[in-house]
């Protein structure tokens, strides 16, 4: 018996999916890319963007049609708004918050699906239940090989409850050289445009000893890049003052471990909030080789009045101080950001302040999104008064600004030799692709797939906006 999963949204959802896979594997299911082969179909959803939610509705409509000719169970979890949850309850067989993932086997058993692992058990009552004819509401009887007649009561969504049980599920990693480690769940910031506090709950920090232990195991297994995940990672520990270390100390302990081992690896984190970004965090990153010199610092808008309406709880002066500190202490660091254009009430002058911020900070990468209303977020009560055509035009202008500064930065790297982690085959025939320590995308001519997952040195010979090309000059020897 097989399962098929779809993961939508951010890296946190990808990390969650790895733990879902573990639970299904322990039940005896195996993965398949073919939906028609699966007995269990699941979505790790994202209510943060409407496009992602539209994909969920499209997929479940297709899956429910499959039920006309085969027995299967559908489920949805991940980041789910209460309004979406109400609709999903009518469309999916199982709807549950990710914190209740450890209870998924019991949910499946209550629904009546016998897993491969269950079939191996000598449980007569289980087998008897599994093959009981099911009466439909119209009185007809359908013999179901694996599904019995009773749909279980749906668990109530309480996103942050018992998240520690979820963290104890060991992930089934999708890569053997890149990994995610969740360190925190939820958010207390309540930005007016954001649904995360309603989909993930309030901030909860994972015990630091678990984080450090998971990281050590990954490094010992040969993982090369590790990303610490949370909705607001640099508020780590603030919910457990006196009982847990802060984010800077967590990074310091990781850095000390990096210094003590012969293994080479890079550690990143996402996403931070400018309000909680301290000078100490930046100082720690500058001191340790294993802490990747790339910082993702969402600006969202370059205008103070817009930031107030967004409830970002910081002004541009605070953001500017952070960037100046990064440039001073880690001059080699790349800077990534998130920006929203067309937020409710955004004037041309306010948008221009955002463009000027991009000009000032010269980002290496910016994830620019047109504002879209999310039910439940505070801004959903306000009129979405910026025309779509204006949003598109503003996005185009910021994209051009990004391209200009990215190209300027990348051209300055031509002729230099950089360290690169090789991540896979490039779209260009005969090339492999990877990223630098600063997460700049780079490709080089090679058909040697044994290099994937390895560190190499490349001499950069050409640059374009958002990407580089280089020549292989050194491959790190690996132990047999």
Short key terms for the protein model shown above:
15 helices; alpha/beta; Rossmann fold; Transcription Regulator spoIIAA; OB fold (Dihydrolipoamide Acetyltransferase, E2P); 20 strands
Description:
With 480 residues, the protein is of the alpha/beta class. It contains 15 helices and 20 strands. It has helices at 11-26, 50-66, 82-91, 104-111, 116-119, 124-130, 163-167, 196-199, 208-220, 247-260, 279-287, 304-309, 316-329, 348-361, 388-411; strands at residues 2-7, 30-31, 40-46, 73-79, 94-95, 134-135, 141-142, 178-182, 184-185, 204-205, 225-229, 266-270, 294-296, 334-341, 365-370, 417-425, 431-436, 441-445, 455-464, 467-475. The strands form six sheets. Strands 2-1-3-4-5 form a five-stranded parallel β-sheet, sandwiched between helices. A five-stranded mixed β-barrel has the order 16-17-18-20-19. Strands 8-11-12 form a three-stranded parallel β-sheet, with helices on both faces. Helix 2 links the parallel strand 3 (40-46) and strand 4. Helix 9 (208-220) packs parallel to helix 10 and helix 11 (279-287) packs parallel to helix 13.
Helix content: 25-40%
- Low-pLDDT stretches: 118-158
- Estimate the mean pLDDT confidence: 87
CATH architecture of the domain at 2-142: 3-Layer(aba) Sandwich
Total beta-strand segments: 20
Strand content range: 15-25%
Classified in CATH, the superfamily of the domain at 2-142 is: Methylthiotransferase, N-terminal domain
């Amino acid at each position: 018996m097989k399962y098929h999963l779809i993961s939508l949204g951010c890296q946190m959802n990808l990390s969650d999916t790895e733990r879902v896979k573990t639970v299904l594997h322990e039940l005896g299911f195996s993965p398949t890319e073919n939906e028609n082969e699966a007995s269990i179909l699941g979505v790790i959803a994202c209510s943060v963007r409407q496009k992602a939610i539209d994909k969920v509705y499209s997929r479940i409509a297709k899956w429910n049609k499959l039920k006309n000719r085969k027995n299967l169970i559908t489920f949805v979890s991940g980041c789910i708004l209460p309004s979406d949850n109400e609709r999903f309850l009518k469309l999916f067989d199982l709807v549950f918050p990710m914190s209740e993932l450890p209870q998924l086997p019991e949910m499946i058993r209550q629904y009546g699906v016998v897993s491969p692992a269950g079939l191996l058990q000598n449980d007569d009552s289980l087998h008897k239940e599994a093959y009981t004819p099911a009466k439909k509401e119209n009185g007809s009887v359908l013999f179901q090989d694996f599904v019995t007649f009773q749909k279980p009561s749906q668990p109530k969504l309480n996103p942050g409850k018992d998240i520690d049980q979820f963290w104890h599920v060991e992930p089934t990693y999708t890569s053997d050289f890149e990994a995610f480690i969740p360190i925190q769940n939820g958010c207390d910031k309540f930005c007016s445009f954001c649904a995360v506090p309603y989909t993930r709950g309030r901030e909860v920090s994972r015990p630091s000893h678990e984080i450090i232990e998971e990281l050590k195991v990954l490094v010992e297994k040969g993982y090369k890049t590790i990303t610490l995940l949370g909705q607001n990672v640099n508020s780590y520990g603030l919910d457990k003052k006196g009982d847990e270390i802060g984010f800077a100390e967590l990074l310091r302990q990781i850095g000390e471990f990096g210094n003590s081992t012969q293994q080479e690896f890079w550690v990143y984190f996402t996403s931070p909030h400018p309000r909680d970004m301290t000078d100490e965090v930046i100082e720690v990153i500058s001191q340790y080789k294993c802490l990747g010199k790339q910082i993702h610092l969402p600006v969202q808008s370059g205008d103070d009045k817009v930031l107030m309406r967004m409830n970002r709880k910081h002004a541009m002066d605070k953001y500017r101080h952070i960037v100046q500190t990064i440039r001073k202490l880690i001059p080699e660091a790349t800077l990534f950001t998130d920006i929203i254009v067309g937020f409710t009430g955004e004037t041309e002058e306010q948008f221009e302040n955002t463009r000027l911020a991009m000009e000032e900070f010269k980002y290496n990468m910016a994830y620019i999104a047109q504002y879209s209303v999310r039910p439940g977020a505070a801004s959903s009560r306000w009129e979405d008064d910026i025309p779509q055509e204006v949003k598109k035009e503003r996005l185009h202008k910021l994209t051009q600004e990004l391209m200009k500064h990215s190209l300027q930065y990348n051209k300055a790297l031509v002729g230099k030799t950089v360290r690169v982690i090789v991540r896979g085959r490039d779209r260009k025939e005969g090339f492999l692709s990877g990223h630098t320590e600063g997460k700049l995308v780079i490709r080089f001519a090679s058909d040697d797939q044994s290099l994937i997952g390895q560190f190499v040195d490349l001499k950069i010979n050409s640059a374009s906006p958002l990407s580089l090309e280089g020549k292989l000059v050194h491959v790190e020897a690996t132990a047999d």
